[in-house]
Amino acid sequence: MDWWSPARVWRSRVYRYRLIAGRCKSCGRAHYPPANACPYCGSRGLDNVELPRVGRILSYSIVYTTPFEDKDKSPVILGLIDLGVTRLVAEIVDVKPEDVKMGDRVEAVFRRISVDGGTGLIVYGIKFRPVRMG
Amino acid sequence: MVLTPERGAGVHGWGVYIPRFRISMQEIAREWGWPDHQWRALGMIEKAVAGPDEDSTTMGLEASLNAIRRSGVNPADIGAVFFGTESKPYAVKPSATVIAEAVGATPLTMASDLEFACRAASEGVKASIGLVASGMVKYALVIGSDTAQANPGDVLEFTASSGAAAFVIGPSKGSAAVFEGSSTYVTDTPDFWRREGSRYPRHGEGFTGEPAYFAHIIGAVRDLMEKLGLKPSDFNYAIFHQPNGKFPLKVGEMLGFKPDQLKLGLVTPFIGNTYNGSALIGLARVLDYARPGERVLVAPFGSGAGSDAYSLLVTDVVEERRDKAPTVDYYINDKIVISYSIYAKYRELIHVIRE
Amino acid sequence: MVYITGVGLVNVDRHYDKSVRKLAFEASVAALDSSMAESIDFIVVASSLSYLQEPQLDLASYIASSMGLRGVRSIAVESGEASGLAAVMTAKSLVDSGLASRVLVVGVDKLSDHPSWRVYRNLSMLYDSESDAFYSIGLGGVAGLLMRLYMDVYKVDRQTLAYWPALMHSNAKANPYAMLRFAITPEKVLEAPPVAEPLTLLDTFPLGDGAAAIVVEGRAGGGAIAEIVAVESSTGFQSIALSDDPLKIESLETAYRRLVERVDVKDVDVVELHDSFTITGILELETLRLAERGKAAEAVAQGNFSIGGEGPVVNPSGGLKARGHPIGATGVYQVAEIALQLSGEFPGLRVEGARGGLAVAVNAMGSSSYVAYLKAVR
């Protein structure tokens, strides 16, 4: 259905694949995905920082109202993930909905975010899954 | 004096990824009306199933990250990325580039997807040895990853599973295991194939055995041992391609190896045949436990058909690398058992129309 | 001074037989008829989903010409769920600046034309496509995160949060323009199918179509229904993940602070809040300091914000929950409803003698917020 343009997927590949955030040289705060200016202080002096790959679930929601193309992963578990230096909203995978708990440790995993119809692009990025052992 | 340029290269890091989901043999047998004898004869317990958002690229990337963590190499020093798979997410468009980009090896690197049924990644290992030993690249990343397909109801469905292994191959100095030598044995043998556009592979059933699997592995291993002047008892471990739980034990016996040498590297009974991951996940598990000075034989096989045999000598470095990433056993034990219907949904065996 | 002189509302429903243009036409004709305006200078169209679902660009001019407003000036305003109030702000600015003396504002959107799953996908675009909506957030996923966070932080149980939808349904019963005109108990909310746990279907708005219109002009004359004293707004973070305090809607706090700093906001007897989900309504009550942090749900359960209860009457229309939420039209509904409350003409639950009122719109969970202050002209 050509929802995703090749150029858009290409532009964002590095920070999507490697979990690279923006960090403000002025106030020091990180944000993901990297923006053009600091969302906190407005400074345009930014550099990049690779985010920690392990964080905690600050909140989660079990989402049933997904578009049809996401039906194979329904219900989607959406999480508000705290990575320490910043937070992000992302899908939580590889766990039964009833086994998700507030405060659980989660680790970043590289996954398909979206598959554009039968012939379009496969969009990759980072999701999170509970750390089971160790 | 046998010339063995392989000695110039070694394994700096190894890593695997096995998806969390498992389906039991009983579940598959019940679904398709197989007698239990069928899977018992294959020496199988469970097989790993990739989730709905996983493919050979995502699994390959996770294995690569683990291998790079163990190696400690700077991803920018990786000069070649070889991705061996027979379940490419794209028919045309490399997956090796996705992995190269995600690990941070781009842009000054080779990146190619290799195809030779289950031994594509093994050819990547051999190519990497050549590139590294010749000094053309400093490090190479080799990935074997598959979301193996099997026609639902085919006996192949008991074993075809999902998983990945990755290795950082670099100069022998500083490596955790040094290559001692290699041998490759290839003929045109149509034991297993999948035509362009076909969703599932076909196979020659019994024909996949003697003239294919056994003949090629035995050909490669005997040639290797002959070249290096080694005999089975010189190896601490032997790992063969493992399409099921029985073939590797049998080929080991035919070659004169003892079950004790085979046990550690035999992972298929727990996770299934991960195709390009198969023997290489076995090698990773052996490296998880091997002690310095031990000798390892690994012989992947790919239908069509061919086999590579490699001899590796484990170094002191192995000890310090081991704990830098999750082990094969970690992944084997980290599991969620699912039903056939969930398996069918996750592996897209159910026909769904999409926009 | 800017006044509302005419109001036209279409009942929110599944209008399978009416197009976006037809709904906009019906609301506009009703507004123009009630204002007795002979002509207008400008039409401001608020719509959001139409651009994706019709699909149609330059919607304002096509709507204007489909109404026979030959040669009228037009502009379209799109600010997601806050489009309606953004359009009212635009219209007021046009009148304030003297660019226009009489402006027709019409908000319209249809949510019943497409299968619900496609509407969910389109509605997820109200959220940031670079962050939250990069993932499959569905309808209410982010609200579900905030609801659970709220329950966890303030130790509020799910039952207490179920009084809001019950109050909204109770309020909507008398509103002829509301989509869901039936009472529900808090227990029903908990028993309803999950949408984005802990949110259930009864914590969300129904997928209905609607259009609302107002006529705005600079001279009061005899026909003024209410005065638009001021509309203020603010943008917020692109994601709740960036906020240090996601249980406060920072953009709304800023918009409201700007409003009270600019004009004398007093005698607020009625408020129409943007309760896209139960939690959104609750967080807005707290952000506007109509309730203490963590106490809004309890206050609602105790009967505050209802007729005869403590505090201003909130959402006598039934709110987004029960009146309905035709995305781009909602802010225009709210302003129209407040105006009718202030003139004593609201055909539903009436706040007798209301002197002042607020309409509040929030896109997503606060990417932008608008608040309008209206005063009675009686």
| Major protein interface | A-C, 39 and 41 residues
Q: In whole angstroms, how far apart are the ends of chain C?
A: 15 Å
DSSP strand tally of chain B? 15
Name the shape of chain C in a single word.
Answer: globular
Largest sheet of chain B: 10 strands, mixed
| Overall radius of gyration of chain B | 19 Å
Question: How many domains is the backbone of chain B divided into?
Answer: 2
CATH class of the domain at 2-114 and 209-217 in chain C: Alpha Beta
The sequence of SSEs of chain C as H and E is: EHEHHEHEHHHHEEEEHEHHEHHEE
Tally of contiguous helical segments of chain B = 13
Number of helices of chain C: 13
Q: Segments of chain B where pLDDT lies below 50 for 5+ residues?
A: none
CATH arch. level architecture of the domain at 2-114 and 209-217 in chain C: 3-Layer(aba) Sandwich
C-alpha termini separation of chain B: 64 Å
**Classification by helices and strands of chain B:** alpha/beta
Number of strands of chain C: 12
Specify the CATH class of the largest domain in chain B.
Alpha Beta
CATH architecture of the largest domain in chain B: 3-Layer(aba) Sandwich
User: Structural class of the helices, strands and pairings of chain C?
Assistant: alpha/beta
Describe the protein in words:
The complex is a heterotrimer of chains A (134), B (355) and C (378). By secondary structure, chain A is mainly β. Chain A has one domain. Chain A is 9% helix and 41% strand. Chain A contains two helices and eight strands, in the order ααββββββββ. Chain A is globular. Chain A starts with 5 loop residues before the first helix and ends with a strand. Chain B has 355 residues and is of the alpha/beta class. Chain B folds into two domains: 6-173 and 334-346, Thiolase/Chalcone synthase (Peroxisomal Thiolase, Chain A, domain 1, 3-Layer(aba) Sandwich); 177-314, 3-Layer(aba) Sandwich (Peroxisomal Thiolase, Chain A, domain 1). Chain B contains 13 helices and 15 strands. In chain B, strands 1, 4, 5, 6, 7, 8, 11, 12, 13 and 14 form a ten-stranded mixed β-sheet that branches. In chain B, strand 4, helix 4 (96-103) and strand 5 form a beta-alpha-beta unit. In chain B, helix 6 (209-228) packs across helix 7 (247-255). Chain B is globular and about 55 Å long. The N and C termini of chain B lie far apart (64 Å). The mean pLDDT of chain B is 97. With 378 residues, chain C is α/β, with parallel strands linked by helices. Chain C has a domain at 2-114 and 209-217: Peroxisomal Thiolase, Chain A, domain 1, CATH 3.40.47.10. Chain C has 13 helices and twelve strands. The longest helix of chain C has 16 residues, at 20-35. The mean pLDDT of chain C is 97. At the A-C interface, strand 4, strand 5 and strand 6 of A face helix 5, helix 6 and strand 5 of C. Strand 4 of chain A pairs antiparallel with strand 5 of chain C, so a sheet runs across the interface.
